[in-house]
Specification:
It is built from 4 helices and no strands. By secondary structure, the chain is an all-alpha fold.
Length: 142
Amino acid sequence: MSVAMSPALEQNARTGGPTAFVFSTIGLLAMLLALPVVLLLGGPIEGWLLGAGLWIVNWMGQLYTGRMSLGLKPTAAVGVTGVSFIARAWIVAIVLFVFALQVSETIGLTAAGVFLAAFTFDLLGRSVLHAMGQRDEEELTE
């Protein structure tokens, strides 16, 4: 199975073995594991689909931003990725808020739970991979 990752995460996943692969895909795993949880709790499948869809679009935006920022100076790259991170979070929050008010509160809240689980685990995985990369860089310079 091929999973889209940012270039830095791809390098860590290639050199880090199975542990790095798990951390690079943990958001996707959390999203997939949320499906049986939603169904067991009697939640609407539409909520899982909406949350999963929003997370995938968000993830693809993060990957695009990461690739786009590779050629930039470090300060500009941090600025672009930071603004993208905040903007994507706000856009998803607004979409879910409007959806819950205008269409279905139950579906909107279920989608929010799925999105937050996948988003949180993805952020955790990327943070761990970054720390692993920093550790590897420090070992190489010693």
